[in-house]
Amino acid sequence: MIKRPFFSSGKLQLRYSLENEVNHDVKEIALSKKVTFFLKTTPDDLEKPSISTGKKVKTGEELTLTSGNRVTSTATGEVVDVSPFIGYSGQSFISLAIEVEKQDLWDDEFKKVLDEKGPKEAFSHLGSLPGIANPASFADPENKIKTIIINGLDRDLLTVTNQFIVKTETEPLAEGIKCLKKITGADRIILAVPASLGAVAGKVGADVKVIDPVYPNTVPSLLIESTTGIQTLPGMDLGKKGIGFISAEAVAALGNLFTEGKTPLHKVLTVIDKNENLTIVRARIGTPAKEILTALNIEMGQGDRLVFGGPMTGKAVYSEEMPVQAETDAIMIQDSAQIIPTSDDPCINCGECVRACPANVPVNMLIRLLENSLYEEAEREYDLFSCIECGICSYVCEMRIPIFHYIMLGKHEIALTRALEESNG
Amino acid sequence: MDNQKLFVSSHAPYWHNCSSLSAKSYTIMLATLPAVIMGISQYGAPALGVIGLAVSVAMISELIMNMVMKRPVSIGNGNSAVIGLLFAMMLPASTPWWAVLTGAVVAVVIGKEVFGGTGANPFNPVLVAIALLMLSWEGVMNFDEALVNYNLGFLMNYPLTALKYFGVSAASDFSTTDLLMGRQSGGIGATFGLGLIIGGIFLILRGMIRWEISLSFIAGIFVTALIFNLSDPEEYATPIFHLLTGYTLIAAFFLTTEDSSSPVNLVPMLIYGAGAGFLTVLIRNIGAFVDGVVFAVLIMNVASPLLDKIRPKAFGKGIEHA
């Protein structure tokens, strides 16, 4: 944990971990007995399920719901459980559990489409890839993507997943960039990397943009602004603005997919242990976190915290059975002794958050409204939706108010109200 | 499920910079020490008595208010101790016990608790109490009257009173070094200029107070006093005299910077500080009171929420969100 320095009148300095500070020995995680996928759902999917238990699944097969949402299976086996799952901020998912057979039987549907109809058509049938849950959105004909930004740094602190990919998978990355250009017609591809990866990044055929590795420079909204000058906000349809935002890992996966005709199955993850030592692991998407922790001899106890993602923006989960998903870049474990509880004390107006906020949100006023459920006013008067979701406000809060939580709750409540208003005409 | 380990779940972020209000309060108390120790060494036991009484009454008042209002006990965060300490620092060492008690209770209860506790006070609680004492018992807060029995080996006239009633010639009896080294009469912890400056710089370096406010307050006083001084050097004292006398320095580093009653954005902080400095000199030079700091800061406290409306444009403002 980076603490406030003794003399701290200067600017906040939260530096990202860099790939060259981490041991490059990759720990391969063996194929798990069970893999689980979460698919975003609409009410239709629950009423008319297109996938039921007992279905035989091949490796690389696209599992498609009635709504068209899909995921790529990373193992061969039988669907043993289909159940609804409520995720972050009330998003509804279907969880598909597959009992895995040892031998992989490959599904050749993708290869067939690729050979018969070409890459664009094949791409629009894609399920998920390591690093991106919904790559097909890039082929959406409604989106005229002109600029694609590839994040070769990682979104959160203590995470080196994408930097590791830029360093070690340079060729697939170059191949992936070619594919992206072909499929989307984008005329500008920008690869954002830290200075240490500048030389490697120069070889992949994209405009290299060196980013100062200080948080929150790679939070999507800020990275898009610093590379293109266009302001976008979280939750916005980037495609409509002509922008694509993708991680380096997803681009490399795309490169591998089109050269080999087989979907890459493995996700690279940074595992952050209780002492904040970083280990790079490769596991199939869908592997339960428990298998990874066991392989690394990490013991978790009562009252510890398991986070999918990094320390600033990750999502805490309640069970070790939670599976690695396409966009899980890191797994962090915190010991119960390291957990700093939030408090319900009121704001003292010290202004730390206001001065630290990269989006100029008047957090001190915003939090007063959010605490009292005045969401509409918060949006109207105090720029609730300008928040770029970096979490720095909570990090610096002297009273330890869960500000980031309140902000996300406010956004969620407003989204619910809007949906209700629309359905009532 | 019975043997499943229970994990702690919460919203991101999972890190914290480990700052806290109690750490801030204790750092502020540490920073006051040079000035406080100087005060105690000058005035002896009575000064220590005033400080001890003020701090304990302030803390007990908060405890009682916590109980009455059925709120969690919050004296551990040190905020009321800071209020008591700063209040005592501004009093003459001979302040009678009932005045200290009244002031400390007023500071914590009326200055802070009735508004909802720490962080909800629109005024600086210390200044609310001092203003009340100034208006209610003039003799208590008149340093010449209160400290009449003390002779500490330097000029025992209160510099600002001397300036107000005897003009610039009386003010020039005080040497800058004396003023800076605490060789002047005044509040227990408000006279040792150098000590207050060291404490203030320590707080600024530690990031506990906002240098923008301190600096603009000092600049406001300096510039305003300079303009007065240039317009009529016979009538108005020099800016240095204004900076080193009365409550100027304690206000610059410990009072104007109080979190709840000051703005948080850059431009508002500068206006707030400069405005308080400007009003201070205005009251001292052409107003009714000997020292203008108390009312100047209270007036700027009122303006602070309005000033904070001046803020930079938020990210992505004006673009349509999803």
Can you put this structure into words, describing what you see?
The complex is a heterodimer of chains A (425) and B (322). Chain A is α/β, with parallel strands linked by helices and 425 residues long. Chain A contains 14 helices and 16 strands. In chain A, strand 9, helix 6 and strand 10 form a beta-alpha-beta unit. The longest helix of chain A is centred in the last third of the chain and has 21 residues, at 403-423. The termini of chain A are far apart. Chain B has 15 helices and no strands. Chain B starts with 20 loop residues before the first helix and ends in a 15-residue tail after the last helix. The model of chain B has no long low-confidence stretch (mean pLDDT 93). At the A-B interface, strand 14, strand 15, helix 10, helix 13 and helix 14 of A face loops of B.
Descriptors:
heterodimer, A: about 425 residues, alpha/beta, 4-stranded antiparallel beta sheet, 16 strands, about 30% helix, about 20% strand, globular, B: about 325 residues, mainly alpha, about 60% helix
